[in-house]
Specification:
- This protein has 462 residues and is an alpha/beta fold.
- It is globular, with a radius of gyration of 22 Å.
- The longest helix has 25 residues.
- It is 43% helix and 17% strand.
- Strands 1, 2, 3, 4, 5, 6 and 7 form a seven-stranded mixed beta sheet that branches. Strands 8, 9, 10 and 11 form a four-stranded antiparallel beta sheet that branches. Strands 12-13-14 form a three-stranded antiparallel beta sheet.
Length: 462
């Protein structure tokens, strides 16, 4: 990498999971729009064919008239080739297949446990963690060996345990996890400002917030627009929409959109606890006792959100594979539309091309004083040249501390169990999840079933 009058060029980005048919395409678009950066992206994936297709798709973007920055894409055979000399490492992988995720999400339903996502917490998130952590041990060791000074950006869930594993293996790693869930809450605050006060045009970036918590269970303890405190406005908004939700009603059309919600969980949690829950309802519901919002599918519907079946994800994968084929053959052209994700903006900041304050997941060094030091937490951080410094966020509010600290402790225990290959300790963590409203006998049956269903990814635990 070297600097020029216009920015930085010859940047090397290593993409682990570079065969992605989602995040990778978004990154390609954002890079093409960043006119003060250029370089190469090395795509590594266990699915070599998928990475090779993305190489072709990415290199075609240089010919688009909207392209402001030409990047070269290269699919490689080994992680070593991707990582050696990298300035940045992006990790975005699927730990296992949707067959394993089908067990994660649906096996617990036989015991009355329902999950709206199943990739972060709950029994599904836990099993996903057991598959993912050994992979991240390998990534961290390779980064330590081949590019120890690189900045590492993780998008993989379960976010918290992935980032924690990177630091456990390589304590000097420069890694952080990115998640856009807070962005959605900032947008909702802008809509509340318009709905209650008639003030239009507030952009997400104009809503300044203090972020505290853990990934997908984040909370805002302050929110401002210009000199306006948004908490009283949001309270009025929450009281107005608490019963029917904000957004489209639950008609037949809405019920077919698995990722939409009417924000009722978010509003309910605010009215209960006085802090703004800052993730999507589908994630927030899974961190609370199952009887609250996820007692069954009908309960979820009554709170304005849906459970996402893995059958839908499998069908969506077919559609993305078909699109990959069209893009590869030139039957469809990529478009350059900035995604709203901040990974490229974070890279620009770390290169010293701008400053940025945004929410990230990094180890707690005191930015949240009432959560354990070293636990991975989500707060704002200041990005500047070769530096990510967490912003002091203050304590998790006492009203939600029991909910947040419990899950934080389970996540720490999960990483310990996985890295020590201790399936009995893992079972103890599994049982402690707020969704596991089961007796120990049934919990053991469910645990053994789910372990067996993902056994081929757990051979290192034997």
């Amino acid at each position: 990498m070297r600097y020029t009058d216009n920015g930085a060029e010859d940047i090397k980005i290593a993409y682990i999971g570079g065969g992605s048919r989602g995040w990778a395409w978004g990154l390609m678009s954002d890079l093409a729009a960043a006119q003060d950066m250029s370089g190469s992206v090395f795509l590594y994936d266990i699915d070599r064919e998928a990475a090779a297709r993305n190489e072709c798709i990415g290199n075609k973007m240089k010919d688009l008239k909207e392209c402001r920055s030409a990047w070269n894409y290269k699919a490689v055979e080994t992680m070593k080739e991707a990582l050696t000399g990298a300035d940045f490492v992006v990790i975005s992988i699927m730990p296992g297949t949707f067959d394993e995720m089908e067990s994660d999400v649906h096996a617990p339903e036989k015991f009355g446990i329902y999950q709206s996502v199943g990739d972060t917490t709950g029994p599904g998130g836990f099993m996903r963690a057991l598959r993912t952590i050994p992979m991240f041990e390998e990534f961290a060791a390779a980064i330590r060996k081949y590019c120890p000074q690189a900045w590492v950006i993780n998008y993989t869930n379960p976010m918290t345990v992935c980032v924690k594993t990177l630091y456990r293996v390589f304590p000097k790693i420069k890694a952080f996890g990115c998640c856009h869930e807070v962005f959605g809450t900032q947008k909702l605050l802008g809509l509340a400002l318009e709905d209650i006060k008639g003030i239009q045009g507030a952009q997400r970036e104009d809503i300044r917030v203090n972020v505290v918590g853990i990934n997908h269970f984040t909370w805002l303890t302050a929110a401002q627009y210009k000199n306006m405190d948004l908490f009283p406005i949001y309270r009025e908004f929450a009281l107005k929409y608490r019963d029917e939700g904000f957004g489209e009603k639950a008609d037949e059309n809405w019920l077919n959109r698995f990722f939409d919600s009417r924000e009722q969980v978010k509003l309910d949690l605010f009215l209960k606890y006085g802090a703004i829950a800052a993730a999507g309802d589908r994630h927030l519901a899974e961190f609370c006792p199952g009887s609250w919002y996820l007692k069954d599918e009908e309960t979820a519907h009554s709170w304005g959100f849906k459970l996402t079946p893995v059958s839908w994800r499998k069908e969506d994968l077919k559609n993305r594979l078909a699109r990959s084929e069209r893009l590869y053959k030139g039957e469809e052209e990529m478009t350059i539309n900035q995604t709203g994700e901040e990974g490229v903006q974070q890279m620009r900041s770390l290169l010293g091309l701008r400053d940025l304050v945004t929410n990230v997941n990094i180890p707690n060094c005191g930015q949240i004083p009432n959560l354990p030091l070293g636990a991975v937490v989500e707060t704002n951080a200041h990005f500047s040249a070769d530096s990510v410094r967490p912003v002091f966020a203050g304590p998790v509010p006492q009203s939600v501390y029991p909910l947040v600290s419990r899950v934080c402790g389970i996540q720490e225990m999960t990483v310990e169990a996985a890295m020590s290959r201790d399936l009995e300790l893992a079972f103890q963590a599994f049982c402690m999840d707020p969704n596991m409203e089961l007796g120990l006998k049934d919990a053991r049956i469910l645990y053994n079933t789910m372990v067996e269903n993902t056994a081929k990814y757990l051979t290192m635990y034997q």
